[in-house]
């Protein structure tokens, strides 16, 4: 991997981070570990990282508080480590801008797979060049997306999106005017099937809807059809 992809582990469990760091380093990553939220915030502000792995349950500054502060100055992808079954923390973390979560206890292989999936769909893997004649931008009403650079504008103004939000909005924009099931959204955006009780798509799209505001007729730009999916409305 050249240059080495840099990962920051933020977790107060020293033994766990040491084991994970060794495993990830063996897989070709450059890894640094810190053991409290404040140090994680400072480290991300000081140097670039491809992704941060952030534990929610830490003494002092919690992972959720740290994530909120990180998002004030950084769009680095964040993978949360959560207690198994703690749905409230998962939803809260996604609302605050986390890209995904893994429930503890997890295996190093599971964590690695989730890290690689996030990097593939954010900045870790260059976007393939479009086929000859294919548009390099996606236009849907006042929305303009540039997948190659992951830049978005809304009514001609820059639209701040996380990597996951960009991918979800791109799927809906490519199908503007058509209802897209959550299963199809998961496959197109994340290249994996939708799992039962998985709410991350709903949470991310709720955040996107807030950023887009309402249409002149008072409706949200993204329509939710309960039990069926989402539709980006035509201009």
Outline the structure in words.
The chain has 235 residues and is an alpha/beta fold. The protein has 2 domains: 6-121, Response regulator (Rossmann fold, 3-Layer(aba) Sandwich), CATH 3.40.50.2300; 138-232, Winged helix-like DNA-binding domain superfamily/Winged helix DNA-binding domain (Arc Repressor Mutant, subunit A). The protein is 37% helix and 21% strand. The chain has helices at residues 14-26, 37-46, 63-70, 87-95, 108-121, 163-174, 182-190, 200-212; strands at 6-10, 30-34, 51-55, 78-83, 100-104, 138-140, 143-146, 151-154, 157-158, 179-180, 222-225, 229-232. The strands form 3 sheets. It has a 5-stranded parallel beta sheet with strand order 2-1-3-4-5, with helices on both faces. A 4-stranded antiparallel beta sheet has the order 6-7-8-9, covered by helices on one side. Strands 10-12-11 form a 3-stranded antiparallel beta sheet. α4 (87-95) runs parallel beside α8 (200-212) and α6 crosses α7. Residues 124-134 have low confidence and may be disordered.
What does the secondary structure layout of this molecule look like, with pairings?
Layout: E1 6-10, H1 14-26, E2 30-34, H2 37-46, E3 51-55, H3 63-70, E4 78-83, H4 87-95, E5 100-104, H5 108-121, E6 138-140, E7 143-146, E8 151-154, E9 157-158, H6 163-174, E10 179-180, H7 182-190, H8 200-212, E11 222-225, E12 229-232
Parallel strand pairs: 1-2, 1-3, 3-4, 4-5
Antiparallel strand pairs: 6-7, 7-8, 8-9, 10-12, 11-12
The top-level CATH class of the largest domain is: Alpha Beta
The number of domains: 2
- H-E string: EHEHEHEHEHEEEEHEHHEE
Number of strands: 12
Low-confidence stretches: 124-134
CATH architecture of the largest domain: 3-Layer(aba) Sandwich
Rounded mean pLDDT is 85
How far is the first residue's CA from the last residue's CA? 43 Å
């Amino acid at each position: 991997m050249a240059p080495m992809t840099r990962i920051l582990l933020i977790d107060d469990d020293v033994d766990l981070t040491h084991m994970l760091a060794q495993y990830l380093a063996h897989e070709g990553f450059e890894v640094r570990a810190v053991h409290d939220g404040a140090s994680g915030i400072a480290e991300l502000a000081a140097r670039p990282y491809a992704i941060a792995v952030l534990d929610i349950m830490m003494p002092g500054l919690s992972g959720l508080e740290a994530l909120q502060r990180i998002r004030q100055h950084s769009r680095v992808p964040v993978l949360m480590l959560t207690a198994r079954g703690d749905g409230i923390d998962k939803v809260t973390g996604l609302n605050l801008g986390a890209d995904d979560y893994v429930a503890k206890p997890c295996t190093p292989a599971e964590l690695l797979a989730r890290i690689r999936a996030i990097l593939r769909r954010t900045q870790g893997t260059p976007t393939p060049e479009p086929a000859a004649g294919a548009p390099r931008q996606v236009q849907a009403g006042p929305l303009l997306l540039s997948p190659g650079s992951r830049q978005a504008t809304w009514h001609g103004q820059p639209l701040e999106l996380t990597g996951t939000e960009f991918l979800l909005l791109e799927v809906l924009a490519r199908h503007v005017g058509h209802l897209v099931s959550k299963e199809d959204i998961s496959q197109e955006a994340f290249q994996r099937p939708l799992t039962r009780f998985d709410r991350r798509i709903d949470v991310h799209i709720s955040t996107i809807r807030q950023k887009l505001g309402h249409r002149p007729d008072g409706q949200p730009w993204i329509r939710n059809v309960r039990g069926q999916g989402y539709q980006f409305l035509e201009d």
